[in-house]
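Following the same procedure, backbone shapes were mapped to integers, yielding the entry below.
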Amino acid sequence: MTQTQPRRAELGAFLKARRASVQPEDVGMPPGVRRRTPGLRREEVALLAGVGITWYTWLEQGRPINASAQVLDAIAQTLRMDRDQRWHMYRLTESIPARRRDATPIVPAAVHAVVRSLDPLPVIVTNDRLDRLARNDASANLYPGWHRLPCLHNNTVWCVFTEPAARERIVEFEEEARLIVAQMRAGYANHVGDPEWDEDIRRLCALSPHFARLWARHEVAGPQLRTRRIAHPEVGALTFQILELDVAIAPGLRLVVSTPADDATWAKLPLPPAPEVATEPPTSSGQLLHRRVAQQQPLGADAGAEVDGRLRALADPGGLDDGAHPEGVVADPIADLE
């Protein structure tokens, strides 16, 4: 038995327990009259989360399939997970960096003060592994809507290679992705043989073939002045010069400062505040189903009736079978980044 098999078995048991704890009425669904077990059925979770019933069944059965953060967040919302439960699911699916929650490097208060003082310039504090250790409000406002739920990765590499929004927001995505991996490879030289680093790399390669290909090139790059163009969803095109500065009082830490590269970008600062990321799952069938069904396939002119019909079908155990669920995700959704 491999190390992954017990983890997958634990994941299946955890998902089943969460599914049993969520009643149909909790998510705005009719309870039905022929339920033999408490909680939601697998097909109901699949529909509400916007994934295929076969794929979700395999996930509960512990089969070796991959899932993006986007898909896991949809499942977390459907099963009404709090932050700790969502973190637990991410750890069991190996979809977060291999970190002890108490092992975050300490950023000195003086560095935090500098980061805040540079607002409205976006600034983050990072390290060899490109963990995001601190940032100011301007940095958060630069990437609104990047995550559907609060980010659990807190790492540039993970956010770029496991979030589909990356391709939409970073204009020269391929060039930026290649540089990020090369910088991580250079940092790895200081941590060869470190179990957390090796586990991070293994998980990223499993989740993202794109990362795996770039990692296999063994390219390295250090801090460098460069240009990054961002497609901001509210203010449009932004062009920054990226300046990376080592923090002398805290070896291993680095300030990454984004300075406008043209007058047009300067004129758009400060950026509008990013909307708060939802922390609680939606509870009504309208909120969940209209969004999930729309993600799976276009709704017809009478969208409300179509959703209500699927709700009524779910209330009857014989109303839907596997064929009634579009197999929206049957393999690694990260392939969408390719």
Observations:
- The CA atoms of residues 8 and 93 lie 7 Å apart.
- The first helix runs from residue 4 to 21.
- DSSP finds 15 helices and five strands in the chain.
- The longest strand covers residues 236-246.
